[in-house]
Amino acid sequence: MGKTDLALQHPYRIRRVKDGFRKGITWLSAACSLALLTAIFANIASGGASLLSWDLLTSDYASATYTYQSGANSAAYADPLLAGASYSPAWGVDFEDTTSFTGENVVSIVYLAPASPISKLDSEVKVGAYFTKAFLSDENGDTIIALARDGAGMVKNNFEKGKSLTSFSITTKGGGIRGSLLSTLLVIALSLLLSLPLGIGAAVYFAYFAPKKSRFVKILEKMIDVTSGIPSIVFGLIGVAVFIPLSSVFTGVNTGSLLSGCFTLVIILLPTIVKTAEEALDEVPKDYRKASLALGASERQTLHKIILPTALPGLLSAAVLAAGRIIGESAALVFAVGNVIGDTVSLAGKNDTLAVAIWSLLAGENPNYRLASAIALIILIVVSLLSLSAKILTYVFLKKRGNV
Amino acid sequence: MSNVFRVEDFSLNYGEKEVLHHINLSIAEHAVTAFIGPSGCGKSSLLRAFNRLNDLIPDAKESGKILYHDKPIEEANPLELRSQVGMLFQAPSPFPMSIYDNVAYGPRCAGKKRGKELDQLVQESLEEAALWDEVKDRLKKSGLALSGGQQQRLCLARALAMKPEVLLMDEPTSALDPLATEKIEELVLNLKTNYTIVIVTHNMEQAARISDYTAFLYLGDLAEFDATEKLFKEPSNPKTEAYLSGRFG
Questions:
Q1: Which B positions 59-118 lie with beta carbon below 8 A of chain A?
Q2: Closest residue by Cα to residue A58 from A190, A177, A140, A226
Q3: What is the pTM for the complete model shown?
């Protein structure tokens, strides 16, 4: 009987159909999850991408209002001819309607003639600042009030009518997330610095030195498993009860601070780090330890020269996982730090991480979806950068050891 | 010829189970001693006792004595003992680092040599393990990139770099193809002029080919221990005879 005959026999056909069905289900699930993830990413990107700019990352969240006094003016300044803007040649200032990072309709100053009296008011009066209001007087001495809420066109008309400027107010841009971004990076750095040595040390103990049959060790391992499943808000309560008083010893502040947040995060991260690090260490062939000890190396030398370097890629991904968890954590930090979006970055101070900033932006009466999406996008980018840098580090390290 | 090791009334337990019962034998200097016997007879356990590698097994318990140059090894510093008594394992286990670093690992851990002296030692060890010509142009490449037989010779060079007196080999060729096996056997015969070698093997022909003395272990007992030629030609124990003629194994 030839091969083709065999293939056409009944049981083979059924098997082929079954295999095809199973394969189909696998493909379908893969496609579904991929579609979902893409949809989430597209949603965040479409909401936040337009707001994403270097300016957003580097500017302050808080805005300040300044008012300046000025005098008469009789010159005329050349129009920069910016599309969509309203230019007042008499005052050399170009206004444009726009939306601020915080989602309000504002009138932005998009051009200032260098010689105009307004640009000479103060260094804060510059392109990018938001115009709020101005008092002018016309040729009859009557007062004209230019208000931002009337729109750029109206403001420009009022300026054109005015012959003399009595007062000119602006607010700085605001809504930037420099503070939250730096706080997040600070929290990541400090939390990892505290939790990685602890977690990896514990993992080394469990993987190599803990008596495997000891009841105590078994209970300890179970407890670590359970702790990694506790919702983080519970740890937030511990943060309030334990870590705020503890960190006040170092900071002298009695309320939540970034330091108490870091302590809380260390507790949240430890179980995950211990588990992933233990897995990474378990992947190191047991023969290495035997071979190293048989060469007269000590346990410590074996650990430092063979086992930890071999497990390094796994340990780095444990660190990336932990960093991801830090960036994503909001519930515990709302308790342990607070939800203040601020611009000063210090361990003793209250400031939001990016995830808490999203929470704060959406929790208020006027939820700001655009800024929240932009921050979400930044979080995605930071996480990607972290995992990329871990990959690069691993590659460089393996290359140095001759293993690529 | 003097003895390097003397085993006196040595027993070994793993938990409740006794795997070696009251073993008495001596390992002769600059000779090859082979341990043969069916699986589970305790030959590897006995081998690991010589460099105290059984210390790594949590519930292993030893009684009796093993003397290394007339000094009991349980009184020796295990790190020092192991730098005198090198070991080659069944599966080649080069470390995931460069060929050079693999060979230099032992001396570096012992804090002995560095620089030019270390280069010299690495070259000598690789030459002694008949690997130098094959790897001299790629010392910085990973040891894992070598073939199985080359990896085993790299492990041999790694052990030789410690300038040991004794080499323990735990079925060193069972994971290798016939050509690689032949190379290792050749090496063993060459190395015995400078080293004392104890080899555990599953392969009776191998024991007959390369060893001077053979110990036949059966179910944790030393059934017979004699010069290889005598043990293979006229075994005194009927068990040995039965094993050698392939009636069980």
A1: 79-80, 82-83, 86-87, 89, 91, 93, 95-99, 101, 105-106, 108-110
A2: A177
A3: 0.79
